[in-house]
Amino acid sequence: MRASLIQMCVDPAESVNSRRTRAASLVRAQADSDLVVLPELWTVGAFAADLFATEAEALTGPTHEAMAAAARDAGVWLHAGSIVERAADGTLYNTSLVFSPDGQLAASYRKIHRFGFDQGEAVLLGAGDRAVTVGLPQTTLGLATCYDLRFPELFRQLVADGAQMLVVPAGWPARRRAHWSLLARARAVENQTYVLACGTAGTHADVEQAGHSVVVDPWGEVLAEAGPDEEVLTVDLDPAKVAKTRADFPVLRDRVLGLDVP
Ligand SMILES: O=C(O)CCC(=O)C(=O)O
Protein backbone atom coordinates (compact mmCIF):
# COMPACT_ATOMS: atom_id res chain seq x y z
CA MET A 1 0.00 0.00 0.00
CA ARG A 2 1.52 3.30 -1.08
CA ALA A 3 0.69 6.55 0.72
CA SER A 4 1.60 10.12 -0.20
CA LEU A 5 1.47 12.99 2.28
CA ILE A 6 1.22 16.39 0.63
CA GLN A 7 2.88 18.86 2.98
CA MET A 8 1.42 22.01 1.44
CA CYS A 9 2.82 25.46 1.99
CA VAL A 10 0.15 27.85 3.26
CA ASP A 11 1.30 31.25 2.04
CA PRO A 12 -1.04 34.19 2.73
CA ALA A 13 0.07 35.71 -0.60
CA GLU A 14 -1.70 32.85 -2.41
CA SER A 15 -5.51 32.97 -2.55
CA VAL A 16 -7.58 30.14 -1.10
CA ASN A 17 -8.94 29.44 -4.59
CA SER A 18 -5.49 29.19 -6.08
CA ARG A 19 -4.35 26.86 -3.29
CA ARG A 20 -7.43 24.70 -3.87
CA THR A 21 -6.56 24.37 -7.55
CA ARG A 22 -2.95 23.62 -6.70
CA ALA A 23 -3.95 21.00 -4.10
CA ALA A 24 -6.16 19.29 -6.66
CA SER A 25 -3.32 19.07 -9.17
CA LEU A 26 -0.92 17.79 -6.51
CA VAL A 27 -3.45 15.05 -5.69
CA ARG A 28 -3.86 14.18 -9.38
CA ALA A 29 -0.08 13.76 -9.64
CA GLN A 30 -0.19 10.98 -6.99
CA ALA A 31 -2.12 8.46 -9.09
CA ASP A 32 0.54 5.82 -8.24
CA SER A 33 -0.50 5.96 -4.59
CA ASP A 34 -3.39 4.19 -2.87
CA LEU A 35 -3.89 6.86 -0.23
CA VAL A 36 -3.16 10.59 -0.44
CA VAL A 37 -3.25 12.88 2.59
CA LEU A 38 -3.47 16.69 2.84
CA PRO A 39 -2.92 18.75 6.03
CA GLU A 40 -5.28 20.49 8.46
CA LEU A 41 -6.97 23.69 7.21
CA TRP A 42 -4.61 24.00 4.22
CA THR A 43 -7.26 26.20 2.61
CA VAL A 44 -6.99 29.07 5.13
CA GLY A 45 -4.13 28.13 7.46
CA ALA A 46 -4.75 26.73 10.96
CA PHE A 47 -3.59 29.95 12.66
CA ALA A 48 -5.44 32.38 10.34
CA ALA A 49 -8.42 32.63 12.69
CA ASP A 50 -9.53 35.91 11.06
CA LEU A 51 -10.32 33.92 7.89
CA PHE A 52 -12.32 31.14 9.54
CA ALA A 53 -15.72 32.83 9.21
CA THR A 54 -15.13 34.40 5.79
CA GLU A 55 -13.76 31.23 4.22
CA ALA A 56 -16.11 28.76 5.96
CA GLU A 57 -17.90 26.47 3.51
CA ALA A 58 -20.62 23.86 3.53
CA LEU A 59 -19.47 20.25 3.82
CA THR A 60 -20.33 19.92 0.15
CA GLY A 61 -18.79 23.29 -0.79
CA PRO A 62 -15.93 24.17 -3.15
CA THR A 63 -13.23 22.13 -1.40
CA HIS A 64 -15.48 19.07 -1.40
CA GLU A 65 -16.10 19.57 -5.12
CA ALA A 66 -12.43 20.03 -6.02
CA MET A 67 -11.21 17.13 -3.86
CA ALA A 68 -13.91 14.69 -4.99
CA ALA A 69 -12.91 15.33 -8.60
CA ALA A 70 -9.20 15.00 -7.81
CA ALA A 71 -9.71 11.70 -5.94
CA ARG A 72 -11.75 10.35 -8.84
CA ASP A 73 -9.29 11.49 -11.51
CA ALA A 74 -6.32 10.00 -9.63
CA GLY A 75 -8.27 6.89 -8.56
CA VAL A 76 -7.01 7.20 -4.98
CA TRP A 77 -8.38 7.25 -1.46
CA LEU A 78 -8.02 10.87 -0.44
CA HIS A 79 -7.87 12.20 3.09
CA ALA A 80 -8.38 15.80 1.98
CA GLY A 81 -7.21 17.32 5.26
CA SER A 82 -9.69 19.68 6.89
CA ILE A 83 -11.83 22.69 6.04
CA VAL A 84 -13.71 25.23 8.12
CA GLU A 85 -17.17 23.74 7.78
CA ARG A 86 -20.26 25.90 8.23
CA ALA A 87 -23.00 23.58 9.51
CA ALA A 88 -26.68 24.09 8.74
CA ASP A 89 -27.21 25.79 12.14
CA GLY A 90 -24.34 28.22 11.44
CA THR A 91 -21.80 26.58 13.78
CA LEU A 92 -18.28 26.36 12.37
CA TYR A 93 -16.20 23.17 12.71
CA ASN A 94 -12.71 22.03 11.76
CA THR A 95 -13.86 19.12 9.60
CA SER A 96 -11.81 16.49 7.78
CA LEU A 97 -13.06 14.90 4.57
CA VAL A 98 -12.18 11.45 3.21
CA PHE A 99 -13.02 10.48 -0.38
CA SER A 100 -13.08 7.07 -2.00
CA PRO A 101 -11.44 6.53 -5.43
CA ASP A 102 -14.79 7.05 -7.14
CA GLY A 103 -15.00 10.55 -5.66
CA GLN A 104 -17.67 9.80 -3.04
CA LEU A 105 -17.39 11.29 0.44
CA ALA A 106 -16.61 8.20 2.53
CA ALA A 107 -16.36 9.97 5.90
CA SER A 108 -16.06 13.29 7.65
CA TYR A 109 -14.65 14.03 11.09
CA ARG A 110 -15.17 17.15 13.21
CA LYS A 111 -12.05 17.82 15.31
CA ILE A 112 -12.85 16.96 18.91
CA HIS A 113 -10.05 18.76 20.80
CA ARG A 114 -10.09 22.43 19.79
CA PHE A 115 -6.91 24.39 20.21
CA GLY A 116 -7.04 27.55 22.34
CA PHE A 117 -3.53 28.18 23.62
CA ASP A 118 -2.10 30.51 20.95
CA GLN A 119 -4.79 30.14 18.30
CA GLY A 120 -8.49 31.10 18.27
CA GLU A 121 -10.04 27.78 17.35
CA ALA A 122 -11.47 27.03 20.80
CA VAL A 123 -13.62 30.17 20.81
CA LEU A 124 -14.52 30.32 17.11
CA LEU A 125 -15.31 26.70 16.29
CA GLY A 126 -17.61 24.03 17.68
CA ALA A 127 -16.24 20.70 18.93
CA GLY A 128 -16.85 17.36 17.30
CA ASP A 129 -18.27 14.61 19.48
CA ARG A 130 -17.64 11.43 17.49
CA ALA A 131 -14.57 9.30 16.78
CA VAL A 132 -14.50 8.26 13.12
CA THR A 133 -12.93 5.27 11.37
CA VAL A 134 -13.00 4.53 7.63
CA GLY A 135 -12.69 1.07 6.09
CA LEU A 136 -10.41 0.81 3.04
CA PRO A 137 -9.82 -2.47 1.19
CA GLN A 138 -6.27 -2.63 2.65
CA THR A 139 -6.79 -1.29 6.19
CA THR A 140 -8.97 0.79 8.52
CA LEU A 141 -8.14 4.46 9.00
CA GLY A 142 -8.67 6.27 12.30
CA LEU A 143 -9.15 10.03 11.96
CA ALA A 144 -7.70 12.70 14.24
CA THR A 145 -6.64 16.31 13.70
CA CYS A 146 -3.57 18.21 14.97
CA TYR A 147 -4.13 19.04 18.70
CA ASP A 148 -5.99 15.69 19.03
CA LEU A 149 -2.52 14.11 18.85
CA ARG A 150 -1.99 15.12 22.49
CA PHE A 151 -4.98 13.09 23.74
CA PRO A 152 -4.22 9.34 23.75
CA GLU A 153 -7.74 8.37 24.83
CA LEU A 154 -9.14 9.38 21.43
CA PHE A 155 -6.64 7.08 19.73
CA ARG A 156 -7.51 4.22 22.06
CA GLN A 157 -11.13 4.70 21.05
CA LEU A 158 -10.16 4.64 17.36
CA VAL A 159 -8.17 1.45 17.92
CA ALA A 160 -11.11 -0.10 19.81
CA ASP A 161 -13.17 0.75 16.73
CA GLY A 162 -10.71 -1.17 14.52
CA ALA A 163 -8.27 1.52 13.32
CA GLN A 164 -4.93 0.22 12.07
CA MET A 165 -3.65 3.39 10.43
CA LEU A 166 -4.05 6.70 12.26
CA VAL A 167 -4.12 9.70 9.95
CA VAL A 168 -3.41 13.08 11.52
CA PRO A 169 -3.57 16.19 9.34
CA ALA A 170 -2.09 19.16 11.18
CA GLY A 171 -0.99 22.79 11.08
CA TRP A 172 1.61 22.31 13.81
CA PRO A 173 3.74 25.34 14.76
CA ALA A 174 7.53 25.12 14.45
CA ARG A 175 7.96 26.36 18.04
CA ARG A 176 6.56 23.04 19.32
CA ARG A 177 8.10 20.82 16.67
CA ALA A 178 9.87 18.69 19.30
CA HIS A 179 6.46 17.46 20.50
CA TRP A 180 5.18 16.66 17.00
CA SER A 181 7.29 13.69 16.02
CA LEU A 182 7.50 12.48 19.61
CA LEU A 183 3.70 12.36 19.93
CA ALA A 184 3.30 10.73 16.50
CA ARG A 185 5.74 7.99 17.51
CA ALA A 186 4.09 7.59 20.93
CA ARG A 187 0.63 7.10 19.40
CA ALA A 188 2.11 4.50 16.99
CA VAL A 189 3.95 2.56 19.70
CA GLU A 190 1.16 2.51 22.28
CA ASN A 191 -1.48 1.50 19.73
CA GLN A 192 0.73 -0.65 17.47
CA THR A 193 -0.58 1.16 14.41
CA TYR A 194 0.80 3.15 11.54
CA VAL A 195 0.66 6.92 12.07
CA LEU A 196 0.57 9.23 9.05
CA ALA A 197 0.99 12.80 10.31
CA CYS A 198 0.78 15.45 7.58
CA GLY A 199 1.55 19.07 8.45
CA THR A 200 1.79 22.35 6.57
CA ALA A 201 4.87 24.35 5.56
CA GLY A 202 5.51 28.09 5.33
CA THR A 203 4.48 30.93 7.64
CA HIS A 204 0.98 32.33 7.99
CA ALA A 205 -0.50 34.67 10.63
CA ASP A 206 3.14 35.16 11.74
CA VAL A 207 3.34 31.52 12.84
CA GLU A 208 6.06 29.43 11.24
CA GLN A 209 4.81 25.94 10.52
CA ALA A 210 6.78 22.88 11.56
CA GLY A 211 6.54 20.90 8.32
CA HIS A 212 8.37 17.62 9.04
CA SER A 213 5.39 15.43 8.19
CA VAL A 214 6.14 11.96 9.39
CA VAL A 215 5.13 8.34 8.78
CA VAL A 216 5.67 5.93 11.67
CA ASP A 217 5.27 2.15 11.58
CA PRO A 218 3.56 0.02 14.29
CA TRP A 219 6.92 -0.56 15.99
CA GLY A 220 7.48 3.19 16.29
CA GLU A 221 10.12 3.41 13.58
CA VAL A 222 10.06 6.56 11.46
CA LEU A 223 9.69 5.33 7.87
CA ALA A 224 9.86 8.75 6.26
CA GLU A 225 10.06 12.36 7.37
CA ALA A 226 9.71 15.54 5.32
CA GLY A 227 11.82 18.66 5.62
CA PRO A 228 10.47 22.11 6.50
CA ASP A 229 9.26 23.14 3.02
CA GLU A 230 6.46 22.09 0.69
CA GLU A 231 7.05 18.46 -0.24
CA VAL A 232 5.26 15.24 -1.15
CA LEU A 233 6.33 12.39 1.12
CA THR A 234 5.68 8.99 -0.46
CA VAL A 235 6.09 5.74 1.43
CA ASP A 236 5.23 2.06 0.98
CA LEU A 237 3.34 0.49 3.88
CA ASP A 238 2.57 -3.11 4.73
CA PRO A 239 -0.89 -3.25 6.36
CA ALA A 240 -0.17 -6.82 7.59
CA LYS A 241 2.56 -5.39 9.85
CA VAL A 242 -0.08 -4.18 12.32
CA ALA A 243 -1.40 -7.68 13.07
CA LYS A 244 2.15 -9.08 13.07
CA THR A 245 3.40 -6.47 15.57
CA ARG A 246 0.38 -7.08 17.82
CA ALA A 247 0.91 -10.86 17.67
CA ASP A 248 4.69 -10.72 18.24
CA PHE A 249 4.48 -8.25 21.14
CA PRO A 250 0.91 -8.40 22.45
CA VAL A 251 0.74 -5.41 24.79
CA LEU A 252 -2.77 -4.36 23.75
CA ARG A 253 -3.95 -7.70 25.18
CA ASP A 254 -2.57 -6.71 28.58
CA ARG A 255 -4.53 -3.50 28.97
CA VAL A 256 -6.34 -3.16 32.28
CA LEU A 257 -9.68 -1.57 31.50
CA GLY A 258 -11.76 0.57 33.82
CA LEU A 259 -8.87 2.78 35.01
CA ASP A 260 -10.31 5.94 33.46
CA VAL A 261 -9.30 8.96 35.51
CA PRO A 262 -11.64 11.96 35.73
O1 LIG B 1 -0.73 21.10 20.09
C1 LIG B 1 -0.04 21.92 19.50
O2 LIG B 1 1.06 22.29 19.93
C2 LIG B 1 -0.49 22.51 18.19
C3 LIG B 1 -1.95 22.31 17.95
C4 LIG B 1 -2.45 23.13 16.80
O3 LIG B 1 -1.75 23.95 16.28
C5 LIG B 1 -3.79 22.88 16.27
O4 LIG B 1 -4.49 21.99 16.75
O5 LIG B 1 -4.17 23.56 15.31
CATH architecture: 4-Layer Sandwich
Number of strands: 14
CATH secondary-structure class: Alpha Beta
- Placed side by side, the strands forming the largest sheet appear as 5-4-3-2-1-14
* Largest sheet entry: 6 strands, mixed
GO molecular function, one term: hydrolase activity
Domain CN hydrolase: 1-239
Pfam families: CN_hydrolase
Keywords: Hydrolase
Describe the structure.
With about 260 residues, this protein is α/β, with parallel strands linked by helices. It has a single domain, classed as Carbon-nitrogen hydrolase (Nitrilase/N-carbamoyl-D-aminoacid amidohydrolase, 4-Layer Sandwich). It has seven helices and 14 strands. A hairpin with a 5-residue loop joins strand 3 and strand 4. Helix 1 runs parallel beside helix 3. 2-oxoglutaric acid binds next to loops.
SSE layout and pairing:
Elements: E1 2-7, H1 16-28, E2 35-37, H2 52-55, H3 62-74, E3 77-86, E4 92-99, E5 105-110, H4 121-124, E6 133-135, E7 140-143, H5 152-160, E8 165-169, H6 177-191, E9 194-198, E10 203-204, E11 207-208, E12 214-216, E13 222-225, E14 231-236, H7 240-248
Parallel strand pairs: 1-2, 2-3, 7-8, 8-9
Antiparallel strand pairs: 1-14, 3-4, 4-5, 6-7, 9-12, 10-11, 12-13
Helix pairs in contact: 1-3
2-oxoglutaric acid binds at residues 46, 115, 119, 146-147, 150, 171-173, 176, 179.
